[in-house]
Amino acid sequence: AASLSFYALFALIPLMLLIFFLLSHLVFSSDYAIVKLAILTGNLVPDFSNKIMVEVYSATQTKAAWGALGLFVLLWAITPLAAAMRSAFYTIASIIEAPSFFKRKLKDIVSVLGILLLFFLFTSAGFIIEKVVRFLAIHLPITEISIIGAVGTLLLTSLLIAIFYKIFFPMRVAISHLLLGASLTAILWLLMRPAFGLFLSLNENYGAIFGSMKTMFVSITWLYLNFAVF
């Protein structure tokens, strides 16, 4: 979890740029994609989300960023995170992976594409849930709408995590176990944000010893907890 949070911090901007490219060119307009990315980034690293989105928006205004070379560089910048994630799965499964250098890099690129697909599906499905909730808001009270939205988000997150585990975990796992693990992961993820916010509000001096580096310390801690749950 610690190594994954370290690599994720450096992979965030290239990852957000690639997700923006997918969203704006395949499903949504550029403005809508930026809004969705801001929400996603705010969930991943709340303290750094504004700075990251400023960099992402600046990069998206440069047409040269979307050339074949630019996309390849962005993909390559995320491969350390994908490699660390695959290594974590192999460690959990107690399997030693010993392919050639080129096979490892090929697997890393495929893993990056899988991560992008996961975020893309999550954002697209979130858009569909948002449309459904708006439609139901005309006929149902706010309380029921909130319950439907929460349950829909939980089910969607659980399904996507189960699919990700099924594809990338190097051992065969029973579908029931995958769904159970994915559901527990999704529940913990939904509970973590209010719990961590409460922790910081009760401990205002948390991380104060780091001075101006407090924001980075809190962000890395938040990423660490997310990957520990994952």
Query: Terminal Cα separation, in Å?
Result: 8 Å
Low-confidence stretches: none
Order of helices and strands: HHHHHHHH
- Largest sheet entry: none
- Count, helices: 8
Average of per-residue pLDDT values: 76
Which helices and strands, and how do they pair?
Blueprint: H1 2-27, H2 30-44, H3 49-60, H4 68-92, H5 101-136, H6 142-168, H7 175-202, H8 214-229
Helix pairs in contact: 1-2, 1-3, 1-4, 1-5, 1-8, 2-3, 4-5, 5-6, 6-7, 7-8
Describe this protein's structure.
The protein is mainly alpha-helical. Helix content is 80%, strand content 0%. The protein has helices at 2-27, 30-44, 49-60, 68-92, 101-136, 142-168, 175-202, 214-229. α2 (30-44) runs antiparallel to α3 (49-60). The mean pLDDT is 76.
Briefly say what this structure is.
This protein is mainly alpha-helical.
Quickly list its features.
0% strand
